[in-house]
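$ ./design --mode recover --in tokens.txt
reading tokens...
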């Protein structure tokens, strides 16, 4: 019985590894998050409002790096390591938001927004 369980575990592990979602830039290019281009107003602004502005908004502990406007977020993406920080795993130093990793779909949307040219509308 132990031998049968051992042989069943290998295919189960292989299937689990093969089903893992990849989140590379190349994968996003092949599998876009939305049809057409991702825009700040329609797609990204609600994600930032829900996940970032409690710290990066007016009066927040990180208000020195505001993310409440299109221009502020665009600047942060272009001139800081924001994309890297939102893609880190829970427990990694520098993860944003510090309260825990956003859902992968939100991260993918922000990454795709960057790939689409950081469009406002």
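writing sequence...
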């Amino acid at each position: 019985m132990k031998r049968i369980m051992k042989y069943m575990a290998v295919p189960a592990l292989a299937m689990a590894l093969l089903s893992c979602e990849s989140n590379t830039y190349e994968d996003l290019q092949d599998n876009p998050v939305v049809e057409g281009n991702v825009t700040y107003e329609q797609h990204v602004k609600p994600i930032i409002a829900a996940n970032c502005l409690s710290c990066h908004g007016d009066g927040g502990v990180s208000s020195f790096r505001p993310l409440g406007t299109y221009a502020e977020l665009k600047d942060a993406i272009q001139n800081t390591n924001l994309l890297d920080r939102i893609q880190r795993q829970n427990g990694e130093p520098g993860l944003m938001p510090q309260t825990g990793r956003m859902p992968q779909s939100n991260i993918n949307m922000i990454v795709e927004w960057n790939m689409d040219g950081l469009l406002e509308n």
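exit 0
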